[in-house]
């Protein structure tokens, strides 16, 4: 029997009005998009220059000069345009913003070569070296982001200019690459084009885009590694010095994808590839490929993922290392990697209807993705450690990649616009649906309208999930069309894996002994008007890591619902490593409306090592540590670094009471 995946509710139909998320989503339109537009045009003082728009003007012949920036610099404007598209879809048309996007798209069109090729680096800098360095050149990666942006913009506005531009380029790619003898048998060093071509196929119906995506995935890791062959070519020219001593695992090209058992290499590359694999597993009903996705997912989230939903533990090459190797103070956990993790999890959840995937999507979105942006929308983390001591975040050391404060911009700035497009598209993660059922994955306050079993329903969700654990849902059938008993649609409510107790009421009557199907509670046959209330027990609780996670041995973390908590120097003083928490004492919660935009803070009982016996400043002596009682204050990890620069830690030493 053919498997049918769930689909997202269109962004234009999901209207978010949530106490937690509104402060971020409003930033996209009011602050982030204007700010990032200024950065793309090099108008932000003291920020690293982007050169992005300038490169397009040079490629279009409208300015003179040389290409500047990273080889994939074009993707910054692509992701910005995708964020604009999602904003127009979710927030309604904005003439000024849409006009700016149209002008930018027209500029991209003018920079496109006559044969359809589009990439300002190769157009300006290396016109005779197209497709000669797939390992490092990012041509296909850049094309993928352009395609994603164009599809989103067409869906938001109905305008085809951008879609036509990228379709011409996709045609060039489909002609160049494939399994035929005359075609290039290579594949991208950085996956992205694969999932983008699937999107282009779904919007255009042109099968060659889907088939080319499948070729790129199937060819990977087959036979002699393509990148090793490529390096021997006469026109090959290296771009990144750090790629010396290249290992195929870095680009997930060490084995055919169906034989890969562990998440390897560059974390962003990995999850973009896995997302495409999930798409193709569905489109081709490929059970072997789906199984490979499940295997890779399980290895990644069960043995190689941080409690915050961060992935990529090595600061060198931004990559996975080995099982349970999760250092807290020098990890990478790139913001883009957690975004890719959410993309992968969304696809797997839609294909399997298993809420366990949404649990991880929620973890990534609420923690690492949000930590990547300041609450004012004007500075960003590229790297997301779980422990920071600002004094040792020094250049030319093993910690130079860790920043104790968010940066205005980056020379390689893939994360800021990626965060923008993710926030703007949050609605796609809230719901999934098929013809019979609506799946509620994230408890975010919103209103939407969907058709189930041929009947229109208006759904209104009022959630105070993060404060008191309650969610109220009103589902109303379209007025004037009575829903016959037993003929209504279904509502599937995700019960998060971290929830141990909950109550659900349907029209004020408690549902006794609810049965879950893969983590969803199914309410069948919705009537004309349904009032549903869920009361989740959301309490602060301690979490321990597997003893094989050496960095966390003897330590605990604190969670409340999907939120991971941390200690900051602002609340707890310096030298957070001197603190011990008493896990036998009950955490004390307090909602503080003036703190970090309104959060539940948590007080913990514990001890602090004093400086008694160390007054002389000696480095070592025989003084036994002296502990004193103290109270620790924890705040959500996603909000850290928004007050003043200081230390931060997620994992806290545990006070062992013997």
Automatic annotation (TrEMBL):
Domain Non-reducing end beta-L-arabinofuranosidase-like GH127 C-terminal per the UniProt entry, residue ranges: 542-653
Listed SUPFAM superfamilies: Six-hairpin glycosidases
Pfam families linked: Beta-AFase-like_GH127_cat (PF07944), Glyco_hydro127C (PF20737)
Protein origin, superkingdom: Bacteria
GO molecular function: hydrolase activity
Ranges where the Non-reducing end beta-L-arabinofuranosidase-like GH127 catalytic domain occurs: 13-427
One GO-annotated biological process of the protein: carbohydrate metabolic process
Mitochondrion is among the record's keywords: no
Keywords of the record: Hydrolase
Residues making up the signal peptide according to the UniProt record: none
PANTHER family referenced in this protein's UniProt entry, alphabetically: DUF1680 DOMAIN PROTEIN (AFU_ORTHOLOGUE AFUA_1G08910)
Name the UniProt record assigns to this protein: Glycoside hydrolase family 127 protein
């Amino acid at each position: 029997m053919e498997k049918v995946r769930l689909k997202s509710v269109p962004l234009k139909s999901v209207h978010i009005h949530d106490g937690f998320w509104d402060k971020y989503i409003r930033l996209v339109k009011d602050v982030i998009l204007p700010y990032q537009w200024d950065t793309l045009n090099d108008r932000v003082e003291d920020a690293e220059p982007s050169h992005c728009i300038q490169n397009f003007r040079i490629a279009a012949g409208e300015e003179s000069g040389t290409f500047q920036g990273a080889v994939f610099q074009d993707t910054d404007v692509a992701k910005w345009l995708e964020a604009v598209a999602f904003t127009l879809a979710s927030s309604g048309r904005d003439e000024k913003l849409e006009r700016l996007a149209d002008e930018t798209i027209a500029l991209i069109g003018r920079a496109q070569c006559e044969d359809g090729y589009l990439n300002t680096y190769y157009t300006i800098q290396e016109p005779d070296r197209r497709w000669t360095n797939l390992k490092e050149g990012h041509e296909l990666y850049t094309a993928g982001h352009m395609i994603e942006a164009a599809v989103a913009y067409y869906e938001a506005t109905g305008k085809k200019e951008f879609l036509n531009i990228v379709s011409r380029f996709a045609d060039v790619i489909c002609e160049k690459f494939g399994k035929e003898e005359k075609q290039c048998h290579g594949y991208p060093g950085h996956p992205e084009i694969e999932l983008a071509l699937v999107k282009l196929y779904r919007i255009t119906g042109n099968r060659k885009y889907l088939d080319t995506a499948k070729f790129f995935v199937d060819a990977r890791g087959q036979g002699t590694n393509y990148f090793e062959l490529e390096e021997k070519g006469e026109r090959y020219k290296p771009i990144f010095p750090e790629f010396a001593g290249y290992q195929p695992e870095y680009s997930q090209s060490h084995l055919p994808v169906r034989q890969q058992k562990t998440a390897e290499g560059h974390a962003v590359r990995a999850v973009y590839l896995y997302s495409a694999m999930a798409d193709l597993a569905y489109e081709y009903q490929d059970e072997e490929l789906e199984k490979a996705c499940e295997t890779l997912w399980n290895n990644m989230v069960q043995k190689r993922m941080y409690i915050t939903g961060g992935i990529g533990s090595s600061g060198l090459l931004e990559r996975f290392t080995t099982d349970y190797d999760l250092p807290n103070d020098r990890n990478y956990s790139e913001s883009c990697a957690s975004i890719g993790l959410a993309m992968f999890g969304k696809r797997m959840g839609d294909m399997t209807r298993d809420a366990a995937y949404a649990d991880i999507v929620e973890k990534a979105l609420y923690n690492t993705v949000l930590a990547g942006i300041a609450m004012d929308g004007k500075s960003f983390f590229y790297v997301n450690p779980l422990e920071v001591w600002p004094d040792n975040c020094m250049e030319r050391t093993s910690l130079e990649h860790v920043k104790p404060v968010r940066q205005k911009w980056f020379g390689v700035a893939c994360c800021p616009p990626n965060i923008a497009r993710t926030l703007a598209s949050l609605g796609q993660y809230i719901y999934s649906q098929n013809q019979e059922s609506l799946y509620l994955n994230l408890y975010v306050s919103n209103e939407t309208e969907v058709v189930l079993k041929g009947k229109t329903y208006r759904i209104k969700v009022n959630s105070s999930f993060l404060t008191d654990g309650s969610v109220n849902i009103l589902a109303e059938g379209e007025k004037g069309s009575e829903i016959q008993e037993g003929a209504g649609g279904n509502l599937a409510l995700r019960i998060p894996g971290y929830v141990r107790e909950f109550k659900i009421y349907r029209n004020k009557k408690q549902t006794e002994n609810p049965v879950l199907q893969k983590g969803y509670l199914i309410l069948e046959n919705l009537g004309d008007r349904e009032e549903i209330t869920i009361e989740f027990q959301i309490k602060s609780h301690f979490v321990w890591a597997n003893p094989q996670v050496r960095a966390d041995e003897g330590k605990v973390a604190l969670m409340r619902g999907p939120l991971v908590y941390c200690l900051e120097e602002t609340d707890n003083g310096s030298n957070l490593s001197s603190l011990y928490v008493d896990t036998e004492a009950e955490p004390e919660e307090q909602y503080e409306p003036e703190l970090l935009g309104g959060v539940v803070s948590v007080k913990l009982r514990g001890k602090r090592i004093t400086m008694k016996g160390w007054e002389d400043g000696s480095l070592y002596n025989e003084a036994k540590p002296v502990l004193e009682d103290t109270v620790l204050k924890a705040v959500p990890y996603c909000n850290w670094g928004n007050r003043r620069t200081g230390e931060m830690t997620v994992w806290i030493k545990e006070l062992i009471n013997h």
